[in-house]
Amino acid sequence: MTTCKSADAASAMNGQDSGSRRKRKIADITQALNASPVDVAALRRMAISEGGLLTDEIRCQVWPRLLNVPAQVLDQEPETVERENNKDYNQVLLDVQRSLRRFPPGMPDEQREGLQEELIDIILRVLKRNPQLHYYQGYHDIVVTFLLVLGERIATPLVEKLSTHHLRDFMDPTMDNTKHILNYLMPIIERVNPEVHDFMQQAEVGTVFALSWLITWFGHVLSDFRHVVRLYDFFLACHPLMAIYFAAVIVLYRQEEVLECECDMAMVHHLLSQIPQDLPYETLISRAGDLFVQFPPSELAKEASSHDSMATSTFKDFDLASTQQRPDSVLRRRRRQRQTALENAAVNSAVTVARPSATRRFVRLAVMGLTVALGAAALAVVNSALEWAPKLDLFP
Fold first, then answer.
1. Are 305 and 291 in contact, with CB atoms under 8 Å apart?
2. Which run of H or E residues covers position 251?
3. Coil, helix or strand for 172?
């Protein structure tokens, strides 16, 4: 009886501690939002740290800040979308019609159908505004997450900003840059566990099993919406390549299963492509952040490829602009810094670039910071990468 009472008391204390931490975090987020300018670095730390941003109400306030979308843009009503003669409409419609499981179970059909119409409109609206972007199957899995959290009006400009930055590589006419990002997976695994890396290499499993994870930010493969938005908090606060680090830590978390599997391409691919739903997400998020700081993309770039991804190459300017929510002043300061560096180079025959110090792990991380049915066109693009496994169900 005493033992039961002690356990009950400990459980109650843990609950109180959890409630206190939650209240403290909400207060910290509110303070960062009310600062002038908004303390985006603090918001990033809150999004990365345990529990993420806690509620969708908070996400409605913080996600626009993380993506540096001005308030006046959020207030604009979305324009009407012209669906007639739209080259992407038929494919988007098909994908959205297949997205039933992305909506909360038990949602009335009328409400879900209305949201699906809004989902189509957001996608077509962003593509029309940005003709350089090309739709890919799985994009709707990301957009629906923003729609469910934010609503159509706020989701539209955020999805647009995300599409021109973090998701930019996936929206090229070809999948070359997407494959380039996948090429970071094995070097990360090799740094941490060479045995797993060598086993996967021997099995010739490749990295296509992680394609759906990457291009949907795990939205398509995780069944619990809470886990999806927790990961989105993390990814929005970090570098565009963080999703591939998270993919690596999932593989490393399952290292025993991998090494016990028959060393056969089909068997290993099947094992890895079936992502567990009971992952220790907070532990894996922390581990992915550690690996990013320990093995930054710049160290892995040569092994992945000889060129930077588009999302990575534009991240410094995006990061500077979003840090203080004052893009013009930040970019002017950056130009002045470049000019000063050039002047110093003329005198000293060397350029010294000052890097901001990072005293805390979350600060460092924030600043550094598809299970999809492939269509015929996309399949043709990546066919060469899939020749070794034409009969595998790569995208269930």
1. no
2. helix 242-253
3. coil
